[in-house]
TrEMBL record:
Residues 296-354, 411-498 form the PDZ domain. It comes from Komagataeibacter nataicola. The active site is at H136, D166, S240. This is Probable periplasmic serine endoprotease DegP-like. The keyword Repeat applies.
Amino acid sequence: MLRDAMSDVVRSNTLSSRRFRTRLLASLVASTVVGAGLACAPVARADETGVIHPDTQIQQLPNFVNLVKQVKPAVVSITARIKDADTGEEMGGGMQGGFPFPFPFQMMPQQAHHTVEARGSGFVISPDGYVVTNNHVVKGATKVTVTLDDGTALPAKIVGRDSKTDIALLKVSPSGKLRFIELGDSDRVEPGEWVVAVGNPYGLGGTVTAGIVSARGRDIGDGPYDSFIQVDAPINRGNSGGPLFTQDGKVVGVNTAILSPSGGSIGIGFAIPSDTVKNIVEQLEKTGHVTRGYLGVTAQEITPSMASALGLKPSATGAPATGALVASVSAGSPAEKAGLKAGDVVTQLNGQNIDTPHTLAVNVASITPGTKASLSYLRNNKPQTATVLISSLGKGGTADGTVGDNAHDADKGPKLGVTLAPLTPDLRQQLGLEESVRGVVVSDVQPGSAAEQAGIHAGDVIQAVGEVPVENPRATVSAIRQAFQANHSVLLRVVRNGQSVFVAVSPNADDNDAPTDDDDDQ
């Protein structure tokens, strides 16, 4: 073949030497590639009739046929009868868009004789008939029926429900052992991983859809312990309570909500992680209700200005400092007994990183009351550790604060822009503060000031400037000025509406007003 190519070139004696070299090189390359039989450029073949037979390279996509065949017998349809249309929020709200988005998947409501029949999904987790579904599937139901994959309909008893995580546990009494599926480890699920959703959307039982995990730990504002797995598998109303599988056949989530302007799937769905489900189901099976861990702190997110005021440094990668800033510690709480104080920054709980107050709340709630937990935190930017005995949620306490003072000061430099007043008995009564609360009251906030930009309001009670407690306007003004003159952000501990919070104020905000004191300004 190489010889033929060269002969062709030699016969082209009219070519210029430049074209000759170009064609010779091309012929040599083409001959070499064909001769080597490389598969990088498949060649289409044609038979004597001229029909082309492409030589294709097929890339295998995930095939879920065997997985679905094996797990489908454990996925069930659930029918819940609600006595009256007016009593069932499942019935009308979701179908008419009454839920804010994201919202729980709604079932297919059908009105007849003053009853509403709503349909959802669920799955069997034990051979003796325990079934997991969503709380909103069976909430308010007077009768619940579970239909197995083979069409067998069984009456179900509601063992327990947990509205905060939207999990419910049902029990049926089968004639024999049921096929069931296991809960997997949702903590090992990664974005980009293939998942399969099986359920009963719009009453079409046994529907299978596939997609990938989009994200983990999503807080959609649906409940205090939101930490959803986000998926793009097409799932719709009626998928509520259905399982989300990984390719190994383990359930890593329970489909519960979607984000959609129309009520149908647009590729943004949310599933309750199986690790959460395990904890809730175990408690519901044993006691019929859920008990959550309690630490006893009110915490805030750390903004960049707060990080600056606290002296927190960015991570090694340059990411902003994270954690849960303790705003207040409840009296007699596990946190107080462990030595935690307002101003501490919780960074880890049982070795798990704490990035936000929400993460702290979710992790604490998942700990069994009476269990010891290890806590890592920063105090004055120095690492500390403590062992805390988690108690049962049911008790709690919060506090808050404000400031004020007015005595126009001619000193130059950055100003806070507030008027401060002593915390008199009359002001204490007006603000509904307990006798234990100490500080100064913010009676006025200058428009456009650093205080206004930081979110300080009239009626706030400033209790401390940094680590220094304050009980009179002049001391407050002096402490703030000292921080501002050093060009540092200042962290104020404030009581607002009975809650204790921290407010970080930057000295670089546009404000030309001096703090006063009498009604002392800051």
